Amino acid sequence: MPRHLLTFPCAGATLTATLDLPAGPPPTTGLLIVSGGNEIRAGAWGGQARLAAALAAQGHAAFRFDRRGIGDSEGTNTGFRHSAPDIAAALTAFRAAVPSLTRIAAHGNCDAATALLLASGAGADALILSNPWPHEEDTAAPTVAALRAHYRKRLLSWPALRRLLTGQIPLLSLAKSLLRLAKPAPPPAPLVAQMAQALAHFPGPARILLATNDATAQAFLSVWSPTDPRLAHCPGATHSFVEPEAQVWFERQVLEMLEK
After folding, report:
1. Are 17 and 90 in contact (CB under 8 A)?
2. Which domains does the chain have, with CATH numbers?
3. Helix (H, G, I), strand (E, B) or coil at 227
4. What is the per-residue pLDDT across 189-217, written as a single tens digit (0 to 9) for each?
5. CA pair distance 127, 146, nearest whole angstrom
6. What is the spatial distance between Cα 77 and Cα 81, in angstroms, rounded to a whole number?
7. Which residues contact 114 (CB under 8 A, 6 or more apart)?
8. Residue 48 pLDDT level (bands cut at 50, 70, 90)
């Protein structure tokens, strides 16, 4: 499938992007992929590059880019909270590069999902948000929800129970950890309310993909309504959906949103 490199302007800086196109007729649907954290547009373990190629093989266009101050792009890295102009500029460049597009979905993982939420999609027609980052800070300690999930998994496993019964786990240390987890979780950060409000104003369809073995997903679920019909859970998946079964599941979710 054809893969092109291109540049586009954003707030006085030149940003770099990669465009994957199908080999057949001009595509009418496309996916804008927003990188999370300080990842370059290839994504963790090259996952975003592989996703773009897979989508092009299915007849869709895929646009990846480095936001300001990341990878090959100029400018200052101001973090996910201030990346709405980058996302909007990338959408403009995507539409200009592929004028046949009538619908663009945008995907982000972790703080890229949060950035898309805060921007209310920045002009995208649909949102695919995986493991949204619910913390005010760029980095955060494990949340109570994540720690509870960790200990629940450990205590329900036979190897951990055997270690406990044979005295290999210090009971005093375990008791202190369980007492700490018994305390009520802190109230949701203001960021979460901003995310919910922005999503409420988004006019198109949205889907929130959560990896069940990911601490960020667990933290998000602890401050979000578990009955939200937009939630979809991938059993056994970690943060970047790198497991073979998780990759298949994730790609199917993306294709469903593109083809809605």
Report:
1. yes
2. 3-141+188-258 (3.40.50.1820), 144-182 (no CATH)
3. coil
4. 689 999 999 999 999 999 999 999 998 99
5. 25
6. 11
7. 80, 108, 132, 133, 134, 191, 195
8. very high
CA 122 → CA 12, 28, 71, 222, 244, distances in Å?
19, 19, 22, 26, 31
User: How many C-beta atoms lie closer than 10 Å to residue 78's C-beta?
Assistant: 14
- Taking CA atoms, 8 is separated from 64, 98, 224, in Å, by 12, 14, 36
For 157, residues 6+ apart whose C-beta sits below 8 A from its C-beta are none
Task: Determine what percent of the chain is predicted with pLDDT higher than 70.
Answer: 79
**pLDDT value at residue 172:** 59
Q: What is the pLDDT of residues 153-172, one digit of tens each?
A: 555 555 655 565 566 656 55
Q: Residue 182, Cβ neighbours under 10 Å: how many?
A: 9
Alpha-helix runs per DSSP H in the chain = 47-57, 84-97, 111-118, 144-155, 158-165, 171-182, 190-200, 215-222, 244-258
Going by the DSSP 8-state scheme, the letter that residue 44 receives in this structure is G
3-state secondary structure of 27: coil
Which of 136, 154, 157, 117 has its CA nearest to residue 219? 136
H/E segment holding residue 28: none
24: left (phi over 0), alpha (psi -120 to 50) or beta: beta
Determine the Cα–Cα distance for residues 238 and 68; give it in Å rounded to an integer: 27
Instruction: Report pLDDT for 26.
Output: 96
How confident is the model at residue 190, as a pLDDT? 86
Round to whole Å and give the CA distance between 100 and 87.
20
* Sign of the alpha-carbon dihedral angle for 152, 153, 158, 159: negative
